[in-house]
Amino acid sequence: MPPKATGNKTKPRKKRRPNALLRPSPPRGARTRAQLTVERLRDLYPAATELVHESPFQLLIATILSAQTTDRSVNQVTPILFGRYPAALDLAGADPAEVEKIIKATGFFRTKTRRIIAASRTLVEQFGGEVPPRMEDLVKVPGIGRKTANVILGAGFGIPGFAVDTHVTRLSNRLGLVKTRVPEKIEAQVTRMVPSSEWTALSLRLILHGRRVCVARRPRCEECVLNDFCPSSCTRPKPNLQPLDHSKKPAATVPVKRTNICSRLFRWPSSRHGGPTSTTRRSSASPP
What we know:
This protein has 288 residues and is mostly helical. 46% of the residues lie in helices and 2% in strands. It has helices at 30-42, 56-65, 71-84, 88-92, 96-103, 109-127, 135-138, 146-157, 166-174, 183-193, 199-212, 261-266, 278-285; strands spanning 235-237, 253-255. It has a two-stranded antiparallel ribbon. The longest helix has 19 residues, at 109-127. The chain starts with 29 loop residues before the first helix and ends with a helix.
């Protein structure tokens, strides 16, 4: 009898979950550090944005204007802007030249003028002049991304949202909460470790802490209330104190002595080590 033909049976591939790439495992101890961060920052900063606004529409426009500038600069021009154009319908039909004069101090005023007018027109044409309280609708508005939409949902409507900007990206990595700089991945990982009721407050407080203490170039670790568990801190509390007791004041910190590697590598040897002195260098450089 001829042998039976056996075909190569291939096992069906497992379907990858759509969010599998956004959910890598967090660093060890990240959940504990996230909970401590929520508790410590809660006593220092309010859960509010520094952009002055009276409605979700004003917050939306102010958030677009805050790109590449400070909130203080935006707060200086928004009273004039909203005094002349109080609603989306008014700003949608505004003269771009007039708007540019008002918001010029915020920088990139021509691009921002086009964006806020286009956003106002979209609100009028698609949402009846009102800001929609849904992420799916907000990202359809020109100039509104996921970060801005989370700010509007949290600060404008009280809907939980975790906005990830440059400060949140920097602090979440320094604190060892995540090991990525992709905003969508940071949002997905942090929101799994923190209750939804703290999403908006934590994001806003991380932004304030990043502006005032944990700055980009020279973080003031000796003033930070998170330095006893932050993996990136250059200071550590004294061993005889208990910094985790929230009923007491933050523990005093001892700065870590830093050595200048460049000065050690390229320092000219002194005369006592057999190296030439300044007089020797001058004499050797002069012609015989």
